[in-house]
Structure formats: structure tokens, C-alpha cells
Amino acid sequence: WLAVVIPAYSRPGQGIHFGDLTLHPFVDGSATYDSNVYLDPTNEQSDIFLEGLAGIDFDYGAEGGSQWLSGRGFIVLRNYFNFTTNNFDNYGERMTYRAGSPDRVSVAILQSYRLIDDYDRSTYYGESAGPASHEQSLTYDRSMRVRRTLNDLGFVLARNLTERTTANGGANYSVQNYSSTNLYDVTRKSVQVGASRRLTDKSSATGN
Questions:
Q1: Rounded Cα gap, residues 7 and 103, in angstroms
Q2: Contact 74, 54 (CB under 8 A)
Q3: What's the Cα-to-Cα distance from 37 to each of 41, 46, 143, 160, rounded to whole Å?
């Protein structure tokens, strides 16, 4: 039998520390009266729902070090008293890894995942159209909840060219997947290159 003891300490507002790892747990709750659950102007129906949020933030890395990892994980629960079919849970996480020095080259890698169940402005398949002639249409039907996942992955490279000038570039890849087969999944790719110059100690100019 082996016991491992990891010293930890905490100060108000400064998180829980385990060496170079700092944890910031958080929790929140609310009760809300909704006078028009389905946002229907002709048939208003009211209800009360309870919503809870819980999660944790973390930071890992020595102060002043060349590498740093931070992130967050969370879950949101909503429960209605009467319209229980509207109950939902959202959850997700995000992480950022930073390394290097601005005087040379610094890199940041960003990743996130979210499950969302909420109202959405979505592109959908025309129900009467055949597979070869599907037309994209926009709907803003606030009475329809949309469950979807969002995945993002990207990076940013930066370097100080002079004391006041910084060059940077990066790329991002994101995918939004809908649980409904009537909705179009969305994939986005982007690349950006830019530079910024600090004109004075209190101002700057940026170009992309």
C-alpha cells in the first residue's frame, strides 16, 4: 500500500495550487420564470426552469516559463417544471497551449469542443426537394431547438520583428455538426497573416 501526498494550498480568489498547476472550480445556479417558452406571439405558454452551471478552469506552467497550458471544462443543466421535453444539457471544454518567446517565435495552439442544445439560425434541406436539388434556406424558427456540436482547432505564430513591430499568422479549422439530418453540417477553414506596430507606449496600429 502506497500513499502519495501532493501538497496543495489556496487563497481566496487565487484558486487551488498543486505546484505549477492551478485549479479554479466554479458553480452557479438560477431560477427563471419564462412567460413565453416557445416564443409564440399567438399562443404564449409560461413555465419556470432551473439552470445550473458547474466547471473548472486550470492553468499549468511555471511563472515566467516558456510553456503554458490552460483550459476549461463545464456543464450546464436546465430543467423545466412543466415543459420537461425542453430540458437540456450543454457541456464542453477548451484548451490553449502556448510556447516560445516573442523575441524569437511564439506559438499558441487552441482547441475547443462544445455540445449545444438551443435555438439557432440554421441552414436546412428543403423537405420537398430531391437529393440532387436541395436548396439552402435560412430559417429563424425560435420554436425549434437545435442540438449540435462545435469543434475548433487552430494555431497562431507570432514574432517581434522590432521593439514595436510584431508579425503573426495562423489558421483555424472548425466543424459544426447537427443532430438533425434536415440541417446542413458546416465546415470552415481560414488562414490569416498580419502585423501590428505600436506607435507609442499607449497606442498601436494593426494590419491584416
A1: 35
A2: yes
A3: 11, 6, 8, 52
Burial 107-139 (b: 16+ CB within 10 A, else e): ebebebebbbbeebebebbeeeeeeeeeeeeee
Phi and psi, residue 48, nearest 5°? -120, 135
Position 149, amino acid: T
- For the stretch 25-72, pLDDT in tens is 999 999 999 998 887 888 899 999 999 999 999 999 877 778 999 999
DSSP state of 125: -
Query: Which phi-psi region, left, alpha or beta, contains residue 39 (left: φ > 0; alpha: ψ -120 to 50)?
Result: left
Q: Which residues contact 162 (CB under 8 A, 6 or more apart)?
A: none
Residue 147: per-residue pLDDT: 85
Q: How distant, in Å, are the alpha carbons of 9, 58, 73, 106 from that of 173?
A: 39, 24, 21, 20
How far, in Å, CA of 150 to CA of 152, rounded?
Answer: 7
Task: Report residue 206 as a C-alpha cell.
Answer: 494593426
Residue 36 CB neighbours (<10 A) = 13
| Closest to 48 (Cα-Cα) out of 65, 31, 62, 24 | 31
Q: What is the distance between the alpha carbons of residues 100 and 85, in angstroms, rounded to a whole number? A: 49
Residue that has been written with the C-alpha cell 475548433 in this structure: 152
